[in-house]
Amino acid sequence: MKYFLSGLIAIGLAIAAAPAIAADARNVSVVNETGYAIKFLGFNAPEDGIDEWENELDKVLQNQASTYVEFDEDDEGCVWNIRVDWQNYDESVLWKNVNLCKFNVLRLRYDHGTKTTSFLAE
Questions:
Q1: Of 43, 26, 115, 33, whose CA–CA distance to 84 is shortest?
Q2: Does residue 3 sit within a domain?
Q3: Which terminal Cβ of the chain has fewer Cβ within 10 Å, N or C?
Q4: How far apart are CA 42 and CA 71, in angstroms?
Q5: Which bin fits 35, alpha (ψ -120 to 50), beta or left (φ > 0)?
Q6: d(CA 46, CA 80)
Q7: Whole-angstrom Cα distance, residue 35 to residue 63?
Q8: Residue scoring higher pLDDT (15 or 114)
Q9: CATH code of the domain containing 77
């Protein structure tokens, strides 16, 4: 009986973990820690050029808010460009050749002292 219960627990844990294993390695949570609202968040493959973008946001991403970006089977490769447009500014930030397969969380940050935007990958 002891082994039967242990087996059931192991099977239950394996089933619970299955959806996480099936998730695309490029899927990423993006956290806005810049202090500013973001109106556009786009990802594109380096070979697509910098003119082809699709907004991943349904609404403005406020400071301290997050969104989850999912990739589908048609998307290929781990390396992507990332573009952010601010809600109240006409400037964009572009990060090139970011390997999304190496992390699950992307924290966008702004340094007021140097006036630079960066990200922390976790």
A1: 43
A2: no
A3: N
A4: 12
A5: left
A6: 6
A7: 5
A8: 114
A9: 2.60.40
**Angle CA 92–72–46, to nearest 5:** 40
Sign of CA dihedral 57, 70, 105, 100: negative
Give CA–CA dist 55/68, Å, rounded: 13
**pTM above 0.85?**
no
Q: Is 14 helix (H, G, I), strand (E, B) or coil?
A: helix
Q: Is residue 18 part of a domain?
A: no
Strands 116-121 and 79-86: unpaired
Q: Per residue in 46-80, pLDDT tens?
A: 888 778 899 999 999 999 999 999 998 888 899 99
Give the CA radius of gyration of the chain.
Answer: 18
**How many whole angstroms separate alpha carbon 56 and alpha carbon 68?**
9
Give me the number of domains the chain comprises: 1
Ranges assigned E (strand) in the chain:
28-33, 38-44, 66-69, 79-86, 92-99, 105-111, 116-121
